[in-house]
Write a structure and sequence with these properties.
Elements (H helix, E strand, L loop, with lengths): L1 E2 L10 E5 L1 H9 L2 H6 L6 E6 L5 E6 H8 L2 E5 H12 L6 E2 L3 E6 L4 E5 L4 E4 L2 E3 L6 H7 L4 E14 L8 E5 L3 E9 L2 E8 L11 H11 L5 H8 L6 E10 L5 E2 L2 E3 L2 H4 L8 H19 L3 H30 L4 H13 L2 H11 L13
Parallel strand pairs: 1-6, 3-12, 10-17
Antiparallel strand pairs: 2-5, 3-4, 7-8, 8-9, 11-14, 11-15, 12-13, 13-14, 16-17
Pfam families: FAD_binding_3
Protein name: FAD-dependent oxidoreductase
Organism: Nocardia ninae NBRC 108245
Length: about 375
């Protein structure tokens, strides 16, 4: 296992595992470890950003029941659970990058940044939306921008917020606040296509940009953004998807965002990556020495699942980040008045929880 970072770093934003994502950590044997690391936030509340008006809420227990599981935790905590599971059995090398790949029908040779080469049966790229492995083995041109940006923030701040997820919906903008402790907040700010691009390399300029962009949002949002400083974690990127005709080629396979990033707005990026790895491992195990057959089975199972997630995210982008004030008001009204049963059925469909878990073969 090759990792570009020089060491294991407990950084990153919060992620939510839902439905089949929770089933995957169960099958991997790390459900208890993930649940023990979960954020102590028992509810998700939605508000209109313009008026501050409460729209609706969902309790975490209801989400878990509706979706077949729900765990909110830091990405670093999931990485830690996976690291604890595999560290004794895997050769994990930090501070290493792949510079060149030479795959053929029988093996793949890689040249590494430390000057060494490795030869293996299969190279798996799990290196995110800007995947270097994908670029080396598949080429470029597979990124599909949906329009806009997201900014993930983790900061130390005395916020005074209730211990629930606060989601503020505006016109072309959305802000999630996760007060994970009395003096710590994780936030995700979404900016639509009609909003100016944020300055990515200057935290203080980013703070000023977000305060100006979200000037009509409630004070709770302003108080968090105004306290953003140079010691806080900030990550910004374009809202984009990856759409490849194939997710394997010769002896190279891609998983997660490297293969078919659905974007943050799908709410299922991590769950999709876990399904990818589980199905890939199961397909290879079942095909034994026939790697090509295993990769073909992996694509057959995962391609339609990933397509559904990308389609859901595109729909969410259109609804949540609409630049139309009329459409934003209609969205907010619908969230207020739609019956719980109808809303929960829509969530099951959006998060793919209507697909039987038994349809996910594994090792």
């Amino acid at each position: 296992m090759l990792e570009r970072a020089p060491r294991f770093q407990p950084l990153g934003h919060y992620i939510s595992l839902k439905g089949n994502g929770v089933e995957m950590v169960r099958r991997m044997g790390i459900f208890d470890a993930c649940e023990a690391r979960s954020a102590p936030l028992e509810e998700v509340r939605l508000y209109s950003a313009a008026s501050g008006r409460y729209l609706r809420s969902e309790h975490s227990a209801t989400l878990a029941k509706t979706l077949g599981g729900y765990i909110l935790l830091r990405r670093a905590d999931l990485q830690s659970a996976l690291h604890d599971l595999t560290a004794e059995h895997a050769d994990i090398r930090f501070g290493i990058e792949i510079l060149r790949t030479r795959p053929d029908a029988n093996q793949v040779e890689v040249t590494l940044s430390d000057g060494t080469t490795e030869i293996g049966d299969l190279l798996v790229g799990a290196d995110g939306i800007h995947s270097a492995v994908r670029g080396l083995a598949f080429g470029s041109g597979f990124e599909r921008p949906l329009g806009g940006y997201y900014i993930a923030i983790t900061q130390r701040v005395h916020h005074g917020l209730d211990p629930v997820v606060h989601t503020y919906l505006g016109t072309g903008r959305m802000v999630n606040l996760l007060p994970v402790s009395p003096d710590s907040v994780s936030a995700v700010v979404y900016l639509g296509a009609d909003v100016d691009a944020p300055p990515r390399n200057d935290v203080l300029a980013m703070r000023d940009h977000l305060l100006a962009t979200c000037a009509d949002f409630p004070d709770e949002v302003h108080n968090v953004l105004a306290d953003l400083g140079t010691d806080d974690f900030v990550f910004a990127d374009a809202i984009a998807q990856i759409d490849l005709p194939r997710i394997s080629q010769d002896r190279v396979a891609l998983v997660g965002d490297a293969a078919h990033c659905p974007t943050f707005l799908s709410g299922m990026g991590t769950s999709l990556a876990l399904q990818d790895t589980h199905i890939l491992a199961g397909s290879l195990a079942r095909s034994r020495d026939n790697v090509a057959e295993g990769l073909s089975r992996y694509e057959e199972v995962m391609a339609p699942i990933a397509r559904r997630y990308r389609d859901s995210a595109a729909s969410a982008h259109a609804a949540l980040l609409t630049s139309s004030q009329v459409k934003a008001r209609i969205r907010d009204l619908a969230l207020r008045v739609i019956p719980d049963r109808v809303f929960e059925r829509g969530m099951r469909r959006f998060y793919d929880s209507e697909r039987p878990l038994a349809n996910l073969p594994g090792p």
